[in-house]
Amino acid sequence: MVTAQAVIESDNSFIFLGTYPGEPVSIWKGLSGSVSKISTTAIDAVIQNYTLEELKQTFAFKYANNGSFFVVFCFPNETFIYDLVSSALQGRPVWHQRSTNASRWRVNDSINAYGMTLVGDNIDGRLGQMSDDFYKEYDEVVPRSFSGAYLSNQSDALFISELELKCESGTGANKEASEGKDPEVLLEYSDDGAVTFKNVGTRALGKQGEANARQIWRRLGRVPYSRIFRAS
What we know:
Elements: E1 7-10, E2 13-18, E3 26-31, E4 34-37, H1 41-48, H2 52-55, E5 59-65, E6 68-74, E7 79-83, H3 84-90, E8 95-100, E9 103-104, E10 107-113, E11 116-121, E12 127-130, E13 136-137, E14 140-141, E15 146-147, E16 158-165, E17 184-190, E18 198-204, E19 215-223, E20 228-231
Antiparallel strand pairs: 1-2, 2-3, 3-4, 5-6, 6-7, 7-8, 8-9, 10-11, 11-12, 13-14, 15-20, 16-19, 17-18, 17-20
């Protein structure tokens, strides 16, 4: 165990940042007298970039939202969140990452009170409320992105003539609105293990009511088996 601040009891188990003697630091889950590693290879790679002294600054907390339960690990520059319900349903660890101004998420802790999830802010110390109904972090728009898995063709390259993102369309600005920007989705790709990404272009998500809008990128050409796509 690296630090007592990065240990959380949840779901009749405990989740912690730790390591075996002589092994790299990872995130583990203990249950019924045994432990198993739940951090992904990508998360482990981030952890290895920190020194032991930096890792001792890591802390963890948990929160619940709409029947889901999350464990949050705050590293000096990154925040990773473990989704307990999705992990149980899919039979594998499910994580997502959150950030503020290209650094770790500004939320320091959370508590459920008065029918709300209240959070503390590590930037200016204010108290905030977290909800799925909010689309901004205070006054700042929060960008969303997700990446897919490596494309597989038995280790051979693919030729992609068309790639379509399936998502909810028609939720943008009103058709009659004279100002405001319609939402767009940006597609990027990486051939070096998600270290760097290249821009493929954006597609409109549609104004309000344009539920038939489709987000398609064509003529992507030869795609190596190491490629990852990311939508933002």
